[in-house]
Design brief:
heterodimer; A: mainly beta; 21-stranded parallel sheet; 1 helix; about 5% helix; about 75% strand; B: alpha+beta; three-stranded antiparallel sheet; 9 helices; globular; DUF4004 family protein (chain B); DUF4004 (chain B); Bactofilin (chain A); BacA/B (chain A)
Chain lengths: ~230, ~210
């Protein structure tokens, strides 16, 4: 079947279906599930249903009531997805709200991401703010703290949380740090993190941490500026 | 029936795997999501697993991970059918199902030489039931029937095959997994078969050849 383009500039609505390109520059509404090669949203879009796209680029504001499945998701504006987000690469420079789960190969968060469910990835890099309601599970987790980051549980192979340089004023006005109930991994390095439990093979607790209990297997280091309630080798 | 649970910490101790491995396997879906059971304990929330299932699964992953990649392993453990077909001679030669079950299948559905995975699964399950002597050949027809018509609607979700008998009359059901089933007093559940386990066993047999 031939795929046609759907371009809305101005205001309009269309029904879902199969398209080659979906481009919304004004205000657009799409009713029903859509399947397209490219999706580019510069204006305000409401998509009722599930969206499947080879590449999705959201620069304006988009709301998807279903799930988004794509290879490349680039969010520079504001995206709200009521279902799950499934992609190979997620770049979030703006703000993303996902009510379901996120699964991706690579996740880069430069802006702000709020995920209500779990987040699964091979690589997870964040230098903005994020909040994950469930489990953050990734092979490599690299967090450069630039704001308030939060996850219920964190698990993975290599976990590194570092504070990046910031102005004194920002430090004073905002809470900058990571909070989680438990952090479990093979190699863990933490700064400015508060957690109930940290468990791993090699654990390094850096400055500004507040950890209730640390369980380690091979190695444990603790910065004098950190607070650790209890630690034991298992 | 209450399943015995094992905590995450105990599991890692017993099996010698690391947190990283456990999480990687979860991510690759080698360990199903529903096995992660969250429970609150006095130290806060902890994760538990069904002991027998998880220990068996981890043992199997450890054994096979040298020969197969994690993605291949994930395929093996997923409840989705494998994309394989087998020739009839192969099925007999490799002892996947008994000759009798195969004969019966052919009688029911006509002569055929190539079997798809879905067909093999029906055959395999029938064979299992016949081997244990729980059902008769005649009753086997309804196993085929229920699979033919309804298995596709589970779309890879796990389900169980139930076989009831009341006063000599047999009924065969497919039930979504995890649902409780209660039957009246005179009826009896003869067989309760976990289909994904059969899928897994069959995949193993097919791939080993």
């Amino acid at each position: 079947m031939e795929r046609k383009d759907l371009v809305i500039s101005g205001s309009g609505s269309a029904s879902g279906g199969r398209y080659d390109l979906i481009k919304i520059s004004g205000t657009g509404k799409i009713h029903g599930d859509t399947d397209c090669n490219d999706m580019a949203i510069y204006g305000i879009a409401t998509m009722e249903g599930n969206v499947k796209a080879k590449a999705a680029h959201i620069s304006g504001k988009a709301r998807i009531t279903g799930s988004l499945k794509t290879e490349q998701a680039k969010i520079h504006g504001n995206a709200r997805i009521n279902g799950d987000l499934q992609c190979k690469q997620l770049d979030c420079h703006g703000r993303a709200n996902v009510d379901g789960n996120v699964s991706a190969d690579e996740v880069h968060i430069h802006g702000e991401a709020v995920i209500k469910g779990d987040c699964d990835a091979e690589q997870f890099h964040a230098r903005g703010e994020f909040s994950i309601g469930g489990l953050l599970n990734a092979g490599t987790i690299q967090i450069k703290l630039g704001g308030h980051c939060q996850a219920k549980e964190i698990g993975g192979e290599r976990i590194e949380v570092k504070q990046q340089g910031m102005t004194f004023l920002k430090k004073l006005l905002f809470h900058v740090g990571l909070t989680a109930e438990s952090i479990e991994g093979d190699e863990i390095y933490l700064e400015h993190t508060s957690a109930k439990a940290v468990r791993g093979n090699r654990v390094v607790i850096g400055p500004g941490c507040d950890i209730e209990i640390v369980e380690y297997q091979d190695e444990f280091q603790c910065d004098p500026g950190a607070k650790v309630g209890m630690y034991k080798k298992v | 029936m209450k399943e015995e649970l094992i905590s995450k910490k105990e599991l890692l101790e017993q099996t010698g795997i690391s947190y990283g491995q456990l999480y990687r396997w979860k991510r690759k879906k080698l360990i199903p999501e529903e096995w992660f059971i969250r429970k609150s304990t006095f130290t806060g929330q902890e994760t538990f697993f069904p002991k027998e299932k998880i220990l068996a699964r981890i043992e199997k992953i450890k054994q096979m991970k040298d020969d197969l990649s994690l993605d291949e392993l994930a395929n093996m453990f997923s409840p989705n059918p494998a994309a394989v077909t087998l020739h009839r001679d192969e099925v007999v030669k490799r002892n996947i199902v008994s000759k009798m079950a195969l004969q019966f299948y052919i009688e029911q559905k006509g002569e055929q030489h190539i079997f798809s995975f879905a067909e093999l699964l029906q055959l395999y399950i029938l064979d299992q039931l016949l081997q244990t002597g729980e059902i008769s050949l005649e009753e086997g027809k309804c196993v085929f029937d229920v699979f033919e018509k309804h298995y596709a609607s589970f779309q890879g979700r796990s389900c169980e095959l139930l076989f009831l008998r009341k006063m000599g009359i047999a009924i065969c059901l497919l039930v979504a997994n995890g649902n409780d089933v209660y039957v009246e007093e005179k009826a009896k559940i003869i067989v309760r078969l976990h289909v994904p386990t059969c899928v897994e066993q069959l995949k193993l047999m097919v791939s080993e050849g």
